[in-house]
Amino acid sequence: MKSTFTRALISLSLIAGLVASASAQTSLLNVSYDPTRELYQEFNPAFAKYWKAKTGEDVAFKASHGGSGKQARAVIDGLEADVVTLALGGDIDAIADKGLIAPDWQKRLPHNAAPYSSTIVFLVRKGNPKGIKDWGDLIKPGVEIITPNPKTSGGARWNYLAAWGYAKQLKGGTDATAQEFVKKLFANVKVLDSGARGSTTTFVERGIGDVLLAWENEAYLSVKELGPDKFEIVTPSLSILAEPSVSVVDKVVDKKGTRKVATAYLEYLYTPEGQDIAGRNYYRPTDKKVAAKYASQLGKVNLITIENFGGWANVAKVHFSDGGTFDQIYANK
Amino acid sequence: MSVAGKRVLPGFNITMGYTLVYLSLLVLIPLSAVFFKTATLGFDEFWAVISSPRVVASYKLSFGASLLAAGVNAVFGLLLAWTLVRYSFPGKGLVDSLIDLPFALPTAVAGIALTAIYSQNGWIGSIIEPHGIKVAFTPNGVLVALIFIGLPFVVRTVQPILQDLERELEEASASLGANRLQTFRFVIFPALFPALLTGFALAFARAVGEYGSVIFIAGNMPMVSEITPLMIITKLEQYDYAGATSIALVMLLVSFALLLVINGLQAWTSKRTGRDR
Amino acid sequence: MSGATATLAGHGGSVSSRYEDSSATREPTWVKWTLVTISLSFFSFFLLLPLFAVFTEALRKGWDVYWAALVEPDALSAIKLTLIAAAIAVPLNLVFGVAAAWSISKFQFPGKQFLITLIDLPFSVSPVVAGLIYVLIFGRQGWIGGWLMDHDIKILFAIPGIVLATTFVTFPFIARELIPLMEAQGKEEEEASIVLGATGLQTFWHVTLPNIKWGLIYGVILCNARAMGEFGAVSVVSGHIRGETNTMPLHVEILYNEYQFAAAFAVASLLALLALLTLAVKTFVEWQAGKSNNQSDKEE
Fold it and tell me: 3.40.50.970, 1.10.10.10, 1.10.3720.10, 3.30.160.20: which CATH number matches B42-273?
């Protein structure tokens, strides 16, 4: 009996030791938005291997995914993220406003701190029964659109701005005609889920709607995961350059002493290996060479940028604040 | 404290003290945060937030659908309670114990399951949508979810009262020549009414704040199928904490008023049915 | 919540036969079966079907996928966290429930209805608000969040926050089960015991507790069921760190968002099973309570 007890004690202390050593190891918390799960699931082990080879240190990862704005709020309210990899620069700006991230965060890494980009495309049902080719087709009567709510989803804000940008560059396009166009488009929206993944599920699993406005990477991923024989991707003539941005959270890394590894983690996203992983997950790599490799897998599209709208601060104020252009669409109905 | 001298039973001070401390720490102080955060807005701003058209539309849906769901539950909950108490049929024990299911099932799971059933390719959706009845992603979906979560409350408040009714009253009514329907209307229903009202109010109070199950099935169209708790989330997404707490405050006050009414009703119920004994 | 459940204690069977045996209290057969059919259809459409859907979806890809979803490390840690949260929240509310019921039901004081209403409040507060209030207090910009940060005490986005939110949403259940029960039982027995020289604790243990035993257990069961299933409030304070701060309901949502529908429903079905198990225990409790009630009836 005694020996069993001793053995139990030993194994217990062993477990305790294991737990202790596990917590002594460096661990990084990456707070991200919904569609990056698969990307970082692949990227994290790659970086851990690279870091181990370079420094001999082990690094473990913890991941948190959710709506971009919700995640930013969690970081503001005290979620101790070492790095944030969110859907919009605007959400990182919000964290920076509270002094957790240096105001010049966007200049610390190349390409506005967006290691990969994406854009907005249309997902339609096989054979494209409604003949949807471009933004203009979306406002035709009888076309049912699925998009998340721009008020609660980062991806949906890109959708909204892309539609706005398309209408404005048409002949005689002004802000007023763009607003009219977007209003017509949202009149065709059947379900406004609160997040991008919710919309995809509504469109794919529930079979609602003729077209889903989605992140390009989400569209390709869902076609791959949920049925290559059921859906098609339509790339519109013009879309928006969506730049999901990344940053180290200065307050947290300084406190935890993880700045070096956190910075290296983000920089690794820009290396050919990191870029390759992004490309494999249907993001558009910023590295020209890697981008060329994946160019054939993604459609060609003309891209406008957020700068055409005067930056995120301005966009948030004009379009998505209370009483902004988005609210007006539903208020004047 | 002059009354305390007459008390025979000990432990009032310690249990009451503990109750108040625990209640304050866990509920009252945290809830007061809602007041204080809202107070950072001026009254005009507060009013602008809680009376904006989208928010008002969400009150209409949240309160309207909750009222309707509680009404449906009152009718069918009464029927279910009646069936369970008065009739014997196979599988009764199972039905009786499953009534509490909505209470124990996580709301998100309920929402996903209901959406799967009532959307156009689901079991029920595929039958009713060709007939032009849409449930998922319309205000009807909100109603279905709220009926689901509210049902146990009506059944579980009516059931015990129905069980304790004195049979002699009904027999007397029958011997005086009343038929069953008349007996139900004039003898049974009046006795059940307070409990039914309590169950109705409980189901209503629970439904008004519900979020998890509704969000999947509602469709969330502004002005049409957005519930009030979603408006709070929307405000938070804009980093507008004070706006969020303003709406939360409105809901909190309504909840509190509702509960006061419910407890008044319950005191009335126990008096009328003499269940204090 | 009704508080009247204790009296319902499982003599349903005998009640129905009593009514059905007498022609004065019996409806025509066609009325009976019409009513049974209507209420059972309603029951099936609104309760049985969703439950059925959960299990069908969970097993759509077979038992292997089902099992794999449950033993995956993130799922296991979610199950563990859910159990931990319930294991802390339920005893806390149990102690509170007994204390509150004692002071409210055995004594008269002004403002009683008001106090009961305050205890009820968490029941009708939206889960979204329940989560938000803890953010307002413990968040970095909250009342004591800054101080907590400085002292490296984690409440929000860690286990304490999840336990707090769970405790809040299950707050009234045990108290509300006990208050009407103890009120109905009056205080004569306890007073007699005190007069005979027993201490307060002895009185509670030997006189009160046996009387409220079944109501207490029923309250604990309800409280536990709700604690394990809470989604909205916990979602706000969790931080969603995989393998660390995800409870089972949150894990379901994550899997669902990863298009792993079968796995999501597998974990959901586990929660449904827990619910069913809880209900089975509850039925057993009521049956036991009914038996002991009948016995005491006979003794009288």
Answer: 1.10.3720.10
- What's the pLDDT at C1? 41
How many beta-carbon pairs under 8 angstroms link A with B? Answer: 70
CATH code of the domain made up of A120-241+301-331? 3.40.190.10
Q: Is A183 on the interface with B (CB under 8 A)?
A: no
Overall CATH class of domain A2-117+243-297:
alpha beta
- State whether B120 and A207 contact (CB < 8 Å): yes
Residue labelled with tokens 């001298």: B5
Domain assignment present for C2: no
Mean pLDDT, residues A76-83: 92
Closest Cβ opposite residue C50 in set B28, B93, B114: B114
- Yes or no: say if A246 and A266 are a contact pair by the CB < 8 Å rule: yes
First to last CA, chain B: 28
Which residue range is the domain that position C179 belongs to?
7-299
Residue C59 tokens read as 């097993």
Q: What are phi and psi of C73, to 5 degrees?
A: -55, -40
Give CB contacts under 8 A, 24+ apart, made by C208-213: C208/C102, C208/C182, C211/C182, C211/C185, C212/C6, C212/C101, C212/C178, C212/C181, C212/C182, C212/C185, C213/C289
Q: Return the residue in B86, B92, B127 with the most chain C beta carbons within 10 A, the one to mutate for interface testing.
A: B86
pLDDT per position as a tens digit, C123-178 = 888 888 999 999 999 988 888 888 888 888 888 899 999 999 999 999 998 998 88
Give the distance from residue B44's alpha carbon to the nearest chain C alpha carbon, in angstroms: 22
Provide the number of structural domains found in chain C.
1
Q: Sign of torsion, CA B80 B84 B90 B93? A: positive
Kindly identify which residue of chain A lies nearest to residue C151, measuring between CA atoms.
Answer: A255
Domains in chain B: boundaries: 42-273
Write down the ipTM of this complex: 0.84
Partner-chain residue, chosen from A151, A206, A333, that has the shortest CB–CB distance to B121: A206
Residue B63: its pLDDT value, please?
Answer: 92
- Give every CB contact of residue C235 below 8 A, 6+ residues apart in sequence: C131, C249, C250, C253
Domain coordinates in residue numbering, chain A: 2-117+243-297, 120-241+301-331
DSSP-based three-state secondary structure for C253: helix
d(CA B22, CA B202) in angstroms, rounded, equals 24
Interface contact C259-A80, CB threshold 8 A = no
Residues of chain B with C-beta less than 8 angstroms from the C-beta of C222 = 100, 103
Classify residue A227 by its DSSP letter: -
Contact in structure between C67 and C267 (CB atoms under 8 Å): no
Taking 50 as the pLDDT cut, the residues of chain B under it are 1-5, 275-277
Identify the CATH number of the domain in which residue C133 sits.
Answer: 1.10.3720.10
Return the residue in B137, B214, B216, B235 with the most chain A beta carbons within 10 A, the one to mutate for interface testing: B137
Interatomic CA distance for residues A148 and A157, integer angstroms: 9
Is the minimum CB–CB distance between C198 and chain B shorter than 8 Å?
no
